[in-house]
Amino acid sequence: MNLQLGSTGADVSRLIQRLKDLNLYSGPVGSVFDGGVEAAVKSFQTANGLKPDGTAGPHTWAALFPGAAAPATPLLDAPVAERCLALSGAFETSTGFPDCFCGLTGDFDGMGMSYGVIQWNIGQGTLQPLFSDMLSAHADVMASIFHDNLDALQNMLSSPLEAQLEWARSIQDPVRHAIFEPWKGLFQALARTQEFQDIQLAHAQVKQQCATALCQRFGVTTERAFALMFDICVQNGSISSDTEALIRTDFAAIPADADPMDAEVARLQSIANRRAEAAKPAFVEDVRARKLAIANGLGTVHGVPYDLEQQFGIRLQSIDV
Question: Could you tell me if 5 and 34 are in contact, meaning their C-beta atoms sit under 8 angstroms apart?
């Protein structure tokens, strides 16, 4: 697995500590691969005759830690649906796996608060069921995290929607929409529990069913196709009949004798481009970059480079959908 801008986790902390020991990095030892860490990696690579791309891949890792195996993504053995959830979660939260489960944003979009790997929110009523399920199945875990703040959360859940939104806005900065402490830390602690991550996985199944239906509708059959359709269900909802007509026209132009995987990529590129063009004008290029990164298996989204196979184990390989 390559560690790069946006990566998170224990291996990133180990990398940062090594760079710090080499006097190449002077910041705190955290678990996020940010711009400062990237600059330190480039300095190390330049000094050691390596390509200064800022990515801690196998060769850079071997130079930093002689004799130690490069870290492997924990996602490789996960079901494809979980790998695709992690990818869309990384896009949604701008953090890598598993910290994407902790994504937390305020009322920048009028939804009160968005939370979790694919940013369920209060305004649309998609977040409240996750809290309710957690309280029902794991009341002890909720009590151990929220303590005397648990009553406020429970009261919010039993209130009308407008009161729920008002509560969410009361725990954040009204201008920057950053969640205040202790709520920020409490929600992050909750998202790090296996119990709440399992609930997120369960609630993501609706999007996974949507992705399966879209794959079958358009006749695409690879892991990369499922990832693209899942991301469309998360970010865009679905594909309209007007957009489908344009996609079908593109499909008809693909040579009948094309290599099957080349044809699959061409279909995915068409779906990516046409769905992006159907987005609101302000978001077309953002959607296009995100969707083409999946269709092509490589790309840069919000300044973060992605390699689907290396980072998420998502391949151009047929699956049953």
Answer: yes
Nearest to 271 by CA among 308, 302, 231: 231
Q: Are 186 and 149 in contact (CB under 8 A)?
A: yes
Summarised one tens digit per residue, pLDDT across range 66-111 is 998 888 777 888 999 999 999 999 999 988 888 899 999 999 999 9
Q: Domains in the chain and their CATH numbers? A: 10-64 (1.10.101.10), 103-203 (no CATH), 205-312 (no CATH)
| Residue pair 225/318 in contact by the 8 Å Cβ criterion | no
Identify the burial level of 118 via C-beta atoms within 10 angstroms of its C-beta, where 0-12 means exposed, 13-18 middle and 19 or more buried: buried
H helix runs in 240-306, sequence order? 241-252, 260-277, 284-296
3-state secondary structure of 300: strand
Instruction: Enter the tokens of residue 282.
Output: 């302000």
pTM of the model: 0.83
